[in-house]
Structure formats: C-alpha cells, structure tokens
Design a protein that fits this description.
Layout (H helix, E strand, L loop, with lengths): L3 H10 L2 H12 L2 E2 H8 L3 H13 L3 E6 L2 E6 L1 H12 L1 H6 L8 H10 L13 H12 L7 E3 H11 L3 H10 L3 E4 L2 E4 L2 H7 L8
Antiparallel strand pairs: 1-3, 2-3, 4-6, 5-6
Helix pairs in contact: 1-4, 3-4, 7-8, 9-10
Amino acid sequence: MVETGLLEFFKALADANRLRIIGLLAGKPYAVEELAALLELRASTVSHHLSRLAEAGLVSARADGYYSVYQLKTDTLHAMARRLLADETLDDLANDVDLDAYNRRVLDNFVDADGCLRTIPAQRKKRIVILRFVLKSFQPDRRYSEVQVNEILAHFHADTALLRLELVGMGWMAREGSTYWRVQESARARGQSDTWSVW
C-alpha cells in the first residue's frame, strides 16, 4: 500500500495555488496577507492552503508582531524528493498491485475449462502469456521426441507446429534433431531477458 506520507505530500501539491505559494516561499517568507495580495486570493483561502501545506510538513509559521509569517521547509521538500527518487520507494508505490492480474485475464480469455486454447492470440504480449502457460507441461530435466512434444501440444491446440516453433523461438525449449527439452530459466534469462518483462 502507498504510505500515507507520500499521499499527503502529493495531495498538498495537487493545487495550482499551493504550488504558487511554494514558489513564492522558496524566495522568502511571507505573511498571509502578503500572499493573498500577490495571488489575488482572500486571506482565508490562503490560510486554508497554508494549513494543507503545513500538514504535509512543507511550511512552518513564526510569529512576527501581529502576523504569522510562513516559510518553506526546504529540508522536508528535499528529503521527500530524495525518497521519491529512491528505487525502493518507487517499487513500494505499487506493492499492493496484483502483478499476475494481466496474465490471469489473458488465460481466462483464451483458455477454456479443459485447459485447451480457444485460439492462439495474435498479439505478441498475449501470446507470450499463453506460451508460458503451455511450457508448464514440459519437465525441465526431461528429453522429448518430436512425437511426444506434438502429443502434449495437441491438448492445447491443433496447430502444434506453431506452438512448437514459438517455444523454440522464444528460447524456452531447445531442439537437437528430433529431440526437444525445456531450457532452464537462468539460461533463458541470459538470452531472452526482454521476454520476461511481462512476468
């Protein structure tokens, strides 16, 4: 789940006037009345925006006579920017997303209740999902004759030649003469790293 601090940060910046206030405060501190005059807003509206920015830790206030003067907390802004640019933070933004949802949707659309393919998808990304599904029927440490490969593939679709050709073309199965075997994932990853981006 995206952490609350980041959500509050983005919500605080999701307003054009609040961004203008931050821009002004980046130059020097201002009182509410000064900001209101510069932005042509009511003082109450500016106070509301400043309150949202303060809740996000982006501004602070100090008393100056009868007025409260606001200044930008540049240390907080810089710290948040560093966090947002960190690889682990970017990864965490999507840690509650189901990464297998696309694969399941493709399988639901193209595979019937018996595990047979209704059709072989033409779109490359969808076809990779289907090929990955078919590949699971082959044991990594076993050799298969072409006849055996065709028998297995025939369960999925009548066009066994296309499936066989695609599995070899993807580097997921290897062939020597009429003997086939499933390639170990580490070996595939070295030669086919681009195909694994969908998993």
